[in-house]
Amino acid sequence: MTHVWPAINATLNGLSGVFLLTAFLLIRKKKIQLHKRFMLAACTTSLIFLASYLAYHYTAGATRFAGVGWSRPVYFTLLLTHTVLAVTIVPLAVISVFNGLKMRVATHRRFAKVTFPLWMYVSVTGVLVYFFLYQWFPSR
User: Deepest of 39, 62, 92, 137, by most Cβ within 10 A of its Cβ?
Assistant: First the structure.
């Protein structure tokens, strides 16, 4: 049963990115209430992902990358940037969302301009890491 969790985690990560992108497009159209709902959906999905990811890796342990040749430096570069930015995005997201909910628009915008592209990168690369590990180069 543990083999389904990586796919579930990748789906949650990707869904968070879809919610985030939708929220971005909505705020560009000045649809503030819909933007807020999609941002809260992105946050909720990300929190569920984090809990699921940590629980899975606590029980299953680490997964070794089985790729060879060109795939190794590509994968490890992707993994390194993903991991560093995933840790970085947490406080940025908290600050951005907190200021948005408090309608501190200037501060929210200032943080969101940095948070949005980093969070999108983390969502997309999280899905790519899943494909590298479990679809394209699965361990034998």
Answer: 39
